[in-house]
């Protein structure tokens, strides 16, 4: 049965399948300690679900196994040495950096539909059974389940790592009421390496396999709705949606695999964007170019907030050419005259624009 599942999964664009038991009791103390320390920030849903996250049979009654799936997402066209291209982009203050996973179609849509098709194929083989599919969409300990089912091990940055594929992949799950045979877990292979911890721009990795989301750029640019803390803004550089630094630094990502589906191909406006080009987007343009993209969920207001921070960091960068410096200053100065925002939305972006303009220096 597992061989059939693996074959069907590959036909659907997945790269690996595993099966985990539902006893995650050993993970509960770590989860509760992470929540107690407030490391989840404003992601209140993390706390509201409590231990249900570590108890699959409570989340979906009747669940006795969890099918786990890996789908690689590196876009077509990325060549060996893609990490150097990304480091170079991060070093150019005039450019904008969007996390690699978000440059194509929303992975929630891609994986959920394909996981359901996988469940349908299984039902055709064994008959109707109880199940529910998840992709980063419910209180599920995805990395814990994936590591227990042999898809990889939890790296020091908390992401799942695979000897075959690094960490550039999405995870999905099918909770089932069928006692499928479980697959063996894989041992950890990070050793003494701490490259991911050292690379984190905001030092959000506060210990091995422990991240304070409140300092994480992915959290700040995506999940966090309010003003970005002043102390962290200069550390964000030109990262406007997510952050890949811990993955770029990880030696295992020399084995990162290209996506098996076209959905994650890079959308043209995100292939090599510059800050001024993205800053010029009005809300209609933002909605058009982010249709079906994970970026749309943050909305145009947070998009502008994030861009304002990156533009402030560009103005503080000595390597920014004079002509580009003047163009950035002019774009920021003209924002209040063209924005339709009012109320709290206007105040949020305006505060970040003012901060950005104050970063201007003469070199």
Oligomer: single chain
Span from first to last CA?
Answer: 66 Å
Arithmetic mean of pLDDT: 95
Radius of gyration: 21 Å
The main β sheet shows up as: 4 strands, antiparallel
Question: In sequence order, what are the helices and strands, one letter per element?
Answer: HEHHHEHEHEHEEEHEEHEHHHHHHH
Task: Find the structural class using helix and strand composition.
Answer: alpha+beta
User: How many domains would you count in the coordinates?
Assistant: 1
Taking strands numbered 1, 2, ... along the chain, how are they ordered across the largest sheet? 1-2-7-4
CA-based shape: elongated
Query: What is the β-strand count?
Result: 10
Q: How much helical structure, as a percent, in the residues?
A: 25-40%
Number of helices: 16
Q: Which consecutive residue ranges, at least 5 long each, have pLDDT under 50?
A: none
Beta-strand residue fraction? 5-15%
